[in-house]
Amino acid sequence: MHNLQATSIRYLDGQLWVLDQHQLPHQESWLLCQSVDDMVNMIQHLQVRGAPLIGIAASLLLGHLAASQSYTLEQLREAAETLRAARPTAVNLMNNMDSMLAVLHTQGIEYLPQEAERLFNEDVALCNAIAQHGAPLLGNNSNVLTHCNTGSLATVGVGTAIGVIQAAHAQGKNIHVYVDETRPLLQGGRLTTWEMKKHDIPHTLICDNMAALLMREGKVDAVLVGADRIAANGDFANKVGTYSLAVNAHYHHVPFYVVAPYTTVDTECPDGNGIPIEERAAAEVQGVSGHFGSVNWSPEETPVFNPAFDVTPANLVTGWILDTGVYTQSDVASGVLKAALQSDG
Ligand code: MRU
Question: Where in the sequence is the active site (predicted)?
C-alpha cells in the first residue's frame, strides 16, 4: 500500500499507526497497529473513534494484512467479520467492511490494499464536498454549537460538522463555536477544543447541560452535529446528548443540522427504532479517566445507564448536510431525502 497520512491515522513504509485519542489533548502519541486484535481493542477503547475513522482504520488494517501475503482469503474474510463487529452503532464500519469483502470475493486478496486506499481517499473527498455544501449555511458573525467530535480526529479528511465550521471560518466569516464537553468521555472537551485551537477558530467550552440556557438567551444561531447512522427516513443516531440538543433547538427555533457522508447511511434501516445502540461500561459514568489518571466519584457499585448514542427523529432536523447537498424537511415530505439517502454513493 502507498503511504497515507491523516491527522488521526498514518500508513507509513508498511506500518499502520494510530493517534491515541485517549492521550489528547495532553500528549500526541502514536500506536502501532499490527493485528485484528490490536485494531478491535483500539476501536473499543476509543483510541481510534468517530464513525468514518473507524471504518477507514479497519479497512487500512485489512489492506495491510492482505499486502503482507501471509493471510488466506478465509482468514481475511474472518478478520473483516471480526472488525465489523467491533462497535455496533456506526454503520460506516459495516459499510466499509462490506466494500472490502465485496472486493475480496469478486477480485481477490491482491485488490484489498487498493480498495482500502480508495476508501481513504474517498473519505477525504466526501468531507470536502460536505464542507462546501454546508459552509454557505453559516452566516457572518454566527455562533454555532456542536457536540462530540466530528473533525479530522473522527475522519481522515477535514471532518463533517467541524469540516463545515472550518470551511466557513476559512471563507473569512466570523464564526464562534460553543463546544459541548460531551459527557461521559469528553470528546468535546478534549478533542474538539484541541481541533478548534489548532485551526484558530474562536470557541467556548460548555457543559452539556448549558446549551438550553444559551439558546434561550439567543446566543446560538445554529447547531451542527455528526452522525453514526442515518436511517432511510432521516432519523439518525449520534453521540448521546444529541437528541436533547435537537429538542432544545426545536423549542428555541434554532436551526439544527446533521452532517454526514453517504457511508453513514443505512438504507436497510427504515427508521431510528432499528438502530442498535451501544451500551458501555458503568465506570465511564461513575467517574472519569484519562491522561491524568482516573477518579471515581460515585459510591461503589452505583447502578448506571450508559448508552453511547441516542436517536434524533427526523422531524427535529432542519437540514441534512450530505456530500451530495443539503436536504430539508420539505425534501422529507416529497421523498427527495429518501431518494438521496438511497442513491447516495
Ligand atoms: O463514541 P465516538 O467518539 O466514536 O462517537 C463519535 C460521534 O458520535 C460522532 O459525532 C460521529 O461518529 C460522527 S464523526 C464525523
Answer: 228
